[in-house]
Amino acid sequence: MSEKIRTQHLSRKAILYVRQSSAYQVSHNLESQKLQYAMRERLMQLGWREIEVVDEDLGRSAAGLVTRSGFERMVAEVCLGKVGAVAAREVSRFARNSREWQQLVEVCRVVDTVLIDQEMVYAPRQSNDRLLLGLKGSLNEYELDLLRQRSVEARREKARRGELLVVSPVGYRKGQQRLEKDPDRRVQEAIRLVFQKLGELGSVRQTLLWFLEHGLELPATNAHEEVRWKRPSYGMLYSMLTNPAYGGAYAYGKTEQLTQYEDGKARQTVRRKPREQWLSLIPGTHEGYVSWESFERLQASISENVIRCAHSGAAQRGPALVAGLLRCRRCGHNLVVHYTGSRHDVLRYQCSRGWLDNGEPRCIGFAGLLVDQAITREILRVVEPAAIEAAVMAHQEQARKTDEVLAALQRDLEAAQYSARRAHKQYDAADPENRLVTDELERRWNQSLQRVREVEAQIEQHRDRQGPSAAPRLEEFADLAADLQSLWHDGETDPRLKKRVIRTLIRDIIVDVDAQAGEVILVIHWKGGVHTELRLPRRRRGQNRTQTSTEVLEAVRVLAHTCSDQVIAGALNRNGLLTGRGNRWTKNG
Questions:
Q1: 555-570 confidence digits (pLDDT tens)
Q2: Cβ contacts of residue 81 below 8 Å, gap of 6+?
Q3: Could you write out the DSSP letters of every residue in 59-122?
Q4: Which residues contact 135 (CB under 8 A, 6 or more apart)?
Q5: pTM confidence score
Q6: How many Cβ atoms are within 10 Å of 368's Cβ, its own excluded?
Q7: Residues with catalytic annotation?
Q8: CA distances from 404 to 75, 236, 390, 401, 576 (A)
Q9: Cys-Cys crosslink for 387: which of 140, 176, 220, 481, Cβ 3.0 to 4.6 Å?
Q10: 236: how many CB neighbours lie within 10 A of its CB?
């Protein structure tokens, strides 16, 4: 027995601390567990009869980032003076961070408790042993950091080569050092349809609404990377559409973990890093669902949908056609639109961003209807020469969209029929007398058949909505193109469609107000690089967009020589004459 172990130590119990750092080690490194539990025999040889084993921290790291209830309970009992010795196979099992290690050594020094490992006995009250324990604690912490650093550097180097495959996104499976497409054709076509719809509709939200409108499901993977079909959500679509893997590129280091402390507890958060800070981005490493050039164009489209100073943003609801495109020539901020009126249809553009954000003076403001009408005339002037070709392409596009929905539903039907046939085979293969099994298999078969009927009903509803339609003749397209202006001004035309047409042709519009000339100055920057300047008369207070008939105006002039305003208004109202806006007359007009 060591001379450091005395009677007061043996009169108290000994604690054997057993720990492994991860669940994998607990499951596979069984020999290490046996060696740690064998320390009980060493304690008995040293003279202890009451030995308590603390092993509730199995699977917990000693780096200091997680709470270890077993270690805390052991330290608490040492503080109470109930423990004569704490033992472990190696002292690194106690702690691999200076805070917890120094806490244990100091507590053992105060209450005169010895520490024991496989090699020797340490008495913290002796300066040499305390120095050795401090050195070993520092070495244990350094060793952990060194191992972690080596592992991280090896992982980073493998990621720089594009060979580190951690998680395969939906639609892909892990292959030999690269991703391979999922062999399920239904999964492939669904993902292609997502990217195709983003290119057509221009925003993630509109893509989501299109899938929800047609009742189409999209594939998703669970923790075991098994494919499940579910109703799409915005986060699900955004994650898919912004993942470089679908453009055929390998990307690593897109996010980083941050540690925040709330109420004294560490909380892990994830932050998405800008692309220039990614560790690795290698295009062309595997087959993509879209080309890398198409993927980059789609990312630019998504970024432009965010309303910022330099972007117009996605097309919003409301009658203002150029909202988001107007930029102030004086300060560079985007103009905002304000709606007034009983029907919320009177619009006014104002440069008030500087006032809202920084308290700066307001720059300019003007009525919006005249500006929208001028931009509409310019758009129609540009579009009309190609109206026939656009109409033909629009019809072909509509027919293709109908086929896309029908093809997706037919793929869903094929998958549902396969599940039903498989459930039927399982039911037939079971023993009819084993009702505990056949009842469950019959229930699954009925669910599969119900799913088949639901998809078939969706297909019938889709065909009924479309109805039989013959392809229009070229002459009909010519008549439609000739009436383009009436279609544009039709109240049934979706304003968002008009805004998308405008954003397709116009990059932005620089606007200013000439107060002396009473004009609004517009400089249109077209997508092709051409600039057009327009000068529009600014509507002054008292001016109306509608005109009162000349007969009424002449009657007012005659009556004004002899009658007051109230008498004139009453006379006009008695004769059923209305203002240019269709209202009754008052003494104010």
A1: 888 888 888 888 888 8
A2: 12, 111
A3: T--SSSSS--HHHHHHHHHHHTT-EEEEE-SSGGGT-SSHHHHHHHHHHHHHHT-EEE-SS-EE
A4: none
A5: 0.56
A6: 23
A7: 21
A8: 67, 21, 21, 5, 58
A9: 481
A10: 17
